[in-house]
Amino acid sequence: MSKDPSSPEQSSGEPSIRYVNLYESENKVYTRRITGFYQKLRRYTGLPLIVGFVLMPWLSINGRPAILFDLANRKFHIFWTTFWPQDGIYLAWLLIIAAFLLFTVTVLVGRVWCGFTCPQTVWTQMFVWAEFLCQGDRNKRIKLDAAPWSVNKLLRIGATHAIWLLIALVTALTFVGYFVPVRELINSLINIDSTVPVVFWVGFFTFATYTNAGFMRQQVCKYMCPYARFQSVMYDADTLTVFYNNLRGEKRGPRKMGDDYKAEGKGDCIDCSWCVQVCPVDIDIRDGMQAECIDCGLCVDACNTVMDKMEYPRGLISFTTEDAIKEGKTRVLRPRLIGYLTVLLVMVSVFVGSLAQRTPLGLEVLRDRGVRMYRISGKDVQNVYTLKINNMDNYPHRYNISLDGDFDYQLQGYRPLELEPGELLTVPVRVAVKRKDLDEVKSVIVFTITAQDNPELTTRNTSSFIGPQQRSY
What we know:
The protein is of the alpha+beta class. The chain has 16 helices and 16 strands. It is elongated and about 110 Å long.
């Protein structure tokens, strides 16, 4: 809300109120095609991610996809390992590690994740490539959009959207292929034999990709991405990010090659606006650090190209630090970075160690807590337990049970049964001990289950054994 001095109310002395929306639709961004180090780096980092994303669902291990999130059967196959809902702690740890890795990278080199490897950035690059292929570079696209509709315009824009839809469809099929075996998915769609949920999700992700990468683009980075909002609290004066050297560039202004521009009080910036024209989020890096900047480095390539043409030194816009510009030096190791690295190293070590010790076998022991906490049968004292044995391996196994404790416990009512992969067996068993040997009301008992065909596949759980109150005579 602000006053507008040019309005009639303001000129007559009455206050004027102008409302400004926090989110406004913006003009279409026409990015200039540029070549340079960071443009090539973006291509070489994005291409392997795209290839890996598309090919991974087609790889098979032991007759199943290498990565398959089987939600219907509550199984998550990741290469040679199968995870179950009981392994949800690993997902939580992985997300926390990813967050701290992002914090560490941000403190060190800024928002390079957004500029080089974020899916929104990578897919937007592909859509911009389709625009360039069908409509030409920046100036041609501007003229084409401004021109009246014609056969040429219809064909060019139609071809652009056709490629967009093809990329979006491949993306959707690949993404859904991580949850439904991709070969079955393709065959069911071709034979019109797909279920409604599968068709819905393929259509939804096609539309989402087409909309996000085709139309929303910088709006996602500016308004929807939470990373743009909290990244600034992780920056410091030694964070490596894209900077415009205003000490060298100002005062801006056009000039001819060979002019003594410094005698005119001008800096190295010729105000060509190439840095703005190549920016995918449509900002002017010369205005200083901005939350919308994704550190893609395209403005660096554009500025270096202009500096080469003008025969000026490169680096007017560069990946550098605030301290490097002001003081000529940068501290790499600093308390915040060391803290993040330490926490990250500890979490990764714990995660890897826990994952290495993971056993694809679960055992839950529940002691009967009814009215009769124990039974006396002849000379024996018995407790009843319910065992839940979960075979989380990819192969069937037959399991043995052994007992350990302070007394000579005997297992009754159990015979080894074969469990299929993913099967959960609930079985009641009785544990007996000689009454004359039992001299404690409550003692510890350890259940150990072991696969008959693989002694390394074993796990244990602890419970308590309740006996009668001992009488003293």
